[in-house]
Amino acid sequence: MAGKKGSKSGLREALAGLVGPDAVSDSREELEVYAGAGEMPALVVRPSEAAQVAELVRLANREKLNLVPVSSGPPHIHGGSWPLKGSVIVDLSGMRRILRTDRRNKVALIEPGVTFGQLQEAVEPLGLRVLKPLMPRANKSVIASALEREPITIPKYHWDMNDPLLCTEVVFGSGEVFRTGSAAGPGTLEQQWAEGHAQKNPLGPAQSDLVRVVQGAQGTMGVVTWATVKLEVKPQARRIYFLRESDLGKLIDFSYRVLRPKQTDEHLILNRWALACMLSEGAEEAARLAEKQAPYTLIYTLSGYEYFPQERVAYLEEDVGRAAQVSGVVPEREIPGVPLQRVWEMLDRPCSGRYWKERVRGGWREIFFITTLDRVPRMMEVMGEVLKRHAWPREEVGVYIQPMQLGRNCHLEYGLFFDPEDADAAAKAEGLCREAAADLADAGAFFSRPYGGWAEVAYSRCPDTVKALRMVKDMLDPGGVMNRGKLCFQEVG
After folding, report:
1. What is the pTM (predicted TM-score) of this model?
2. DSSP assignment string, 46-89
3. Which pLDDT tens digit goes with each residue over 161-182?
4. Domains of the chain by range and CATH?
C-alpha cells in the first residue's frame, strides 16, 4: 500500500500536499464508516475540487494505490464502495456546489456531493423538479444515484437507461481528464454557455459514448467530478390515486395501458409490507398498517403543467379511468390508515431521519434486478420457492416494482428486514439472497447492477462481455488503481 513513499506516514504527507492536511485522515473511527462489510481502508482523503481529484489519481498510479470513490454519506449499503484492505477512500461528499441551473433546457450541472434535498431546494423556485428514486437517503448523492442507475419513479421521463444522467467530467484511472457528450466541446464550459449550450446531449464526443462505460462501473473506471442531470417542469396541479388489488396481473395490465401513452407521472407498485414499512417508524407500526392494506397497491399521479393544468388532469382522469375499467381495477383517492400527506412526502421528498429500510428492524438485505412487467408473476413464484426453502415468512418480504423506460422493463426489488444483533437472522438473509440471485437469473432476471456476489451470477453467463470490459478497463485504468476487485475485475493489486 505504501508504495515508493515506503510508509503510511509518507503517503499521508504526499496526499496532504495535494488536498491539505485537514482533508486527510487515518482515524480508525472515521475509516470504519467506509469499511462496511469490506476491509479496513488505510486513509480517507477529501478533495474539494476537480483538479485535486486528477492529481490524486496520478499519484495513485505512481504509488500503486487503490482508490475507492465515495460521494454519498453512510451507511454504504450495496458494497460497490466497500474497500479492500489498505485502500485509499476518496470522499467526494464535500464537493457540494451546484455549478449551474438552466430553466429553459431543464438541466443542472452539479458536483458529486450534491444531495437530492439540496438540488430540490435549488430548482423548485425555478419551477423545476428533480427526477429521483423512491425515498432516497437524505445524504444520497444525486450523481452516485444516477451512476448506479437507480430507477426514478416517473417512467415517462425515463427514455434511456442513462436517464437522468447527461454529460460528465471524469478522471479516468489513467489520470486523463475527459468530458463526455456535448460537454466535450469545443470550448470551455463558460464559452459553451455563452453560445447557448447546456451540456444536455450525453452522446459524444464524435461516435464515442463513454458515459455508458462509467455508469454502473462502481468506480472501477474513474472518478466523476461533475455531471449534468435532467430536470423536469414542476406540475401546477396533481392528483394521486391508488389501485388496491390481490391480482397482480390486473395491475400489470393497467400499467401497460397507461405507460405507453405517457399518461401517468409517478407510477409504482408496492406489496403491503413494503408500503407499510415506507410509511412507518418501526416494525410494530408497520405490522399494524400492513394488516389494513391490500396485497398490492399501485400508486400513480396525474399532473398538469404550465398550460391549462386543471384541464389536463381532468381529461387524463377520464382516459386513465377508462383504462382502469378495461383492466378490471378501481382507482381510489386514499388508502386505509395513512394520511395523504405522508404518501406525498414518500413520493416527493428524500427520506427524513433514519433511512426507512434501517428503521424497520435495524438490518436488511435486498435483492433487485431488471425484468419485464409480464414476467414479474414468474419471478414472484421463483422468489416464493426460495423463501419457502429458507422458512422466511413471505408476508414480511417487501416487494417494490418500478416500471422504467415507459414500461418497456421494470426494476423488481425484494427487501428482507431483521435485527442486526441476531447473527442467525443476518446469515439466513445473506444466504437466501445469494441463492435467490442464482435462481432468479436462471429464470431470466437481468442483474444490471451486480454488487458483491451477484457479479459472478451476472458475468459467468456472458464471457464475451467480460473479455470486452477487461479490454476497456486496461485502456482507461491501465495501472488498476480504481476500486480493485469489483465486478469482473478481480485484480487485487
Report:
1. 0.95
2. ---SHHHHHHHHHHHHHHT--EEEE-SPSP--SSTTPPPTT-EE
3. 999 999 999 999 999 999 999 9
4. 3-91 (3.30.43.10), 98-233 (3.30.465.10), 237-348 (3.30.70.2190)
